[in-house]
Amino acid sequence: METHDTVTLDLRPVDRPIPLHQPGQFTMLYAPGVGEVPVSISGTGPDQVLVQTVRAVGAVTRALCACAPGRMIGVRGPYGTDWDVARAAGGDLLIVAGGIGLAPLRGALQAALAQRDRYRRVVVLIGARSPTELIFVRDLGEWHRRGADVELTVDRATEGWAGHVGVVTQLLRRATVDPARTTALVCGPEIMMRLTARELVALGVPAAQVRISLERNMRCGVAECGHCQLGPLLLCRDGPVVGYAVAAPLLAVREL
Amino acid sequence: MSGVTPAELGEHAFLRGMTGHHLAILARACWMAPLRAGHRLFEEGGTAQRFWLLQSGQVALDLHSPGRSGLIVETLGPGELVGLSWLVPPYHWQFGATAAQDTVALELNAIAVRAACEEDPVLGYEVLRRVMSAASSRLYATRVRLLDLYGRPGAGQDRQ
Q1: Pairing between strand A92-98 and A122-128?
Q2: How far is A115 from chain B (nearest CA, A)?
Q3: What is the domain-level CATH number for residue A36?
Q4: What fold is seen in the domain B2-143?
Q5: Angle, vertex CA A152, rays to CA A173 and CA B101, nearest 5
Q6: Which residues on chain B are in Cβ contact (under 8 Å) with A239?
Q7: What is the pLDDT of residues A101-115, one digit of tens each?
Q8: A226 falls within a domain
Q9: Of A79, A97, A124, which residue sits at a domain end?
Q10: Number of domains observed in the structure of chain A
Q11: Residues A114, A75 within the same domain
């Protein structure tokens, strides 16, 4: 259990593993007898174990979160675009996560830290509702030891919290990165991503170097049903990771 | 207390772009203030006679609740202004404030700065414009926090 409503599942293939996947991609997870949902891949464990983090917000996700060890679920994928972390090599990598949005970014961060010397600075800014709703808390120390500058902030502090209190965008101005040489990966509630991306561009990060992860009613995952359409994009195929320069005008259209 | 030069003052993000003349006026009311972690800057309800421009460290704003340690409402860091009430009558702090870690700040005499602003309206406007920017930014962030974005599922997710 990550939090009261969020669980990380380690999925071991019964038959064949899913094909090689990249950070940012997602799978469709099937809870037998209940339904299927898109879930971002949050990592890869030894022996081809697939790590996926699920928040219980509806019937399917509640069923997945309730799975006991040994329970079989369905997995198909991987689908969608990835964070393309390697393209950030040579510059600063800034990862901005809000709430469950850290799950799709975890694999990207781990990939960067596995080749830490390819990046100048690696800065991770994480926002959560409260200290008890931070996920991957067990990873924070290791990320720091492997060369990431990690800052946490919460909307509401609990007694004893000694960290930042405020929205994650308030940490952007203090981030020790060179904006012009920064690639920013952002994931969280759509409003948070919009505000963060806008602030990043205002600070001098080129829009083409800001990437966000979008989800809009994904159903089939294979660009057939059209439910995840966002203007000219089908997010299961052309996303979920989308460049902000492409996404910004689409996000401004309420009808989409 | 260690004095501050106009040039040092002008390097702070809050005062960026201010003229040398105005910085010289403010520097006369300013000194360097190292604050140890745990130092109490002011109490809710107290008279706002000073304000701070943070250079490093962190200050936590809090409200007292009976039987509980201070409820932290926001933290402020390098480049930020600590204190808004010094500019607004009746000049009483609305929150308490504590250095959450070892902090270095530029401390200013609020009474002297208000008097200088009254005497020089251009300075007054420059100070007010910057304070308003800080207040506007915090109001915006507070409104976003009220949305409880992390507490609500995204589009279509409530069907998942």
Answers
A1: parallel
A2: 31
A3: 2.40.30.10
A4: Jelly Rolls (2.60.120)
A5: 80
A6: none
A7: 999 999 999 999 999
A8: no
A9: A79
A10: 2
A11: no
Q: Domain containing A12: what range?
A: 6-79
pLDDT, tens digit, for every residue of A180-237?
999 999 999 999 999 999 999 999 999 999 999 998 788 999 999 999 999 999 999 9
User: What CA–CA distance (Å, rounded) separates A42 from B141?
Assistant: 29
- B128 close to B84: Cβ distance less than 8 angstroms: no
CA A221, CA B95: separation in Å to the nearest integer?
Answer: 50
Q: Which residue of chain A comes nearest to B79, CA vs CA? A: A174
CA distances (Å), A8 to each of A50, A153, A201, B49, B86, in order?
10, 22, 33, 51, 48
Q: How far is CA A53 from the centre of its chain?
A: 10
For residue B131, the distance in angstroms to the closest alpha carbon of chain A comes to: 16
| Residues in A touching B60 (Cβ below 8 Å) | 165
Indicate the domain borders of chain B.
Answer: 2-143
Q: Which residue of A has its CA nearest to B65?
A: A159
Phi/psi at A225 (5° precision): -85, -25
Cβ of B77 within 8 Å of Cβ of A189? The answer is: no
Structure tokens at B29: 């009311």
- Nearest-Å Rg of the Cα atoms of chain A is 18
Distance of CA A71 to the CA centre of its chain: 25
Q: What is the ipTM of this complex?
A: 0.86
Q: Are residues A207 and A89 in the same domain?
A: yes
Q: Give the whole-angstrom CA distance, residue B12 versus residue B53.
A: 8
Quick check: is A11 in a domain?
A: yes
